[in-house]
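As noted in the main text, all predictions were made from sequence alone. Below is one such record, for Ion transport domain-containing protein.
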Amino acid sequence: MNDFFVYLYCKDLIVIVASTLMLTLATDRQTFAASAIRGVRFLQILRVLHVDRHGGTWRLLGSVVYIHRQELITTLYIGFLALISCSYLVYIAEKDEKGQNIRGVKGNDSHFESYADALWWGVITITTIGYGDVYPITWY
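Prediction:
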């Protein structure tokens, strides 16, 4: 019974109770109780900590990142240079193209009115978000 009050078990109990209340009260989305309990959903993230009780996996991951920090920094640097270079090349290729611009106005404006628009396209493309608001039209 002493183990029941250990931090991990109490945390699990709170997460289970919050999840159960969410499921039972969420049938009627108009009730205040369901919306109030939704704020407790972030506690479900704490279940991840329960998977690795002693933190061995996290220590291993931290040591690997620390040991290979130079390679990781070099990779980020090369990626940043590629982003800047490719965004510049796309801006040069697209700046004089006619079509619908980033603000949705049709006319003589290109998608890439400035280098900042090209950088926006590069960041959104590299992070695979792909909003679709800016895209190259030279190859169409």
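Helices lie at 7-25, 32-38, 46-51, 56-67, 69-94, 115-126. The chain has two domains: 2-67, 77-126. These features were considered when defining construct boundaries for the mutagenesis experiments described in Section 2.9.
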